Amino acid sequence: MRLSTVILPVRRWHEGGRDEWLRAERLGFHTAYTYDHLSWRTFRDGPWFGAVPTLTAAAAATERLRLGTLVTSPNFRHPVTLAKELISLDDISGGRITLGIGAGGTGFDATALGQEAWTPRERADRLAEFVPLLDRLLSEPSVTSDGAFYSAVEARNIPGCVQRPRLPFAIAATGPRGMKLAARHGQAWVTTGDPKLSESGTPAQSREAIRGQIDKLDKACADIGRDSAELDKILLTGFTPDRDGPLQSLDAFVDFAGRHFALGITEIAVHSPIPDSVFAADQAVFERIATEAPAQLA
C-alpha cells in the first residue's frame, strides 16, 4: 500500500506553499499531487495557483518525492501545449511526474473560457481523443493528427520525457469508455468512489461500489489482453461517505486503508489539512498517519 497526499495550490509559495511540499517529502509520502483546476468549489473566491507552475517549483525544491496532478482534464487544456509543459516538468523533476487525467466536470473550469459546459457524453468523447493524442505527443518526436476536437501538425517534442517511453498516466474513470482508456493507456487508475453514494450511502456500500469498479477495470484490461495487476489503483479520499473518518486517528486510517487494500486499492491519497475548509484535519494526526500507517499496512 502506497500512501500519498494532495496539496491544494491555495498558499503563496513563500508564505507556506513551499513548506508544504518539503513537509510531504520529509514525511515520506510516495507522491504529492495537486488539483489541476482554474478554481475549485468552496475555494473559488480565495487564492488558487496554477498546477504546472506549482509542480515546477515543487520539483525544484524537492529531491525524492514523486509529483503529479489529480486530475488534469480537457476542460481548459489542449494536448499539444500540455505535452510541452509536461515534458519540461518531467525534465526539471528528473523523471518524478505522474499525470492524473480525467474527463472533467461541470464546475468553474467548464465555462471559464466562455464555452457552454459539455454534457457527460461530450466530455467522454473529448477524453477519448485527448488521451491517445497526448500519449503520442509524449512518446514520439513529431506528431501530426487531425481529430474532431484536437489536432496537431508536426508538433515536435524533443528530447521527450525523462521517463520512458513517457511519464505515467493515472486515468480517473468509472464508466465503460473511461475504463477502456485506463486499460489501454494507463499505468494507474483513479477513483473517488461512487459519487452517487457520497452524501447518502454507507461506507460498506461505498466499498462494494469500488469493488465493482475494479471488476470493470479488470474486464476492460482482459478484453485487450492486459493484466490489470500492471495498473496501480489509486483512491483519492475525501469523497466517500466516511470522508471525515480516516483522518480522525491513526487507528481509523489504518482500518480504512486496510479495508480498501483488501479490495485491490494499491495507493491512497489524503489531502494535506487546510484549516477552516472541507479538508480541515488535525495536523498532528495527519503526520502520524504519514509516518506510522505504512508500517502497519505492510
- Spatial strand arrangement across the major sheet: 1-2-3-4-7-8-9-10
Report how far apart the termini are: 7 Å
Largest sheet: 8 strands, parallel, barrel
Structural class: alpha/beta
Radius of gyration: 18 Å
Q: Percent range for helical residues? A: 25-40%
Residue ranges: pLDDT <50 for 5 or more in a row?
Answer: none
Q: Quick check: average pLDDT?
A: 97
* Helix-strand string: EHEHEHEHEEEHEHEHEH
Question: Tell me, what's the shape?
Answer: globular
**In percent, how much strand structure appears in the residues?**
15-25%
Number of distinct beta strands: 10
Give the count of helical stretches. Answer: 8
Characterise the protein shown here:
The protein has helices at 17-27, 51-61, 79-93, 120-139, 176-185, 203-223, 250-263, 283-297, and strands at residues 2-6, 31-34, 66-72, 97-101, 142-146, 151-156, 169-172, 188-191, 232-236, 267-271. An eight-stranded parallel β-barrel has the order 1-2-3-4-7-8-9-10, surrounded by seven helices. It starts with a strand and ends with a helix. The longest helix has 21 residues, at 203-223. It contains eight helices and ten strands. Strand 1 (2-6), helix 1 (17-27) and strand 2 form a beta-alpha-beta unit. The chain is α/β, with parallel strands linked by helices and 298 residues long. It is 39% helix and 17% strand.
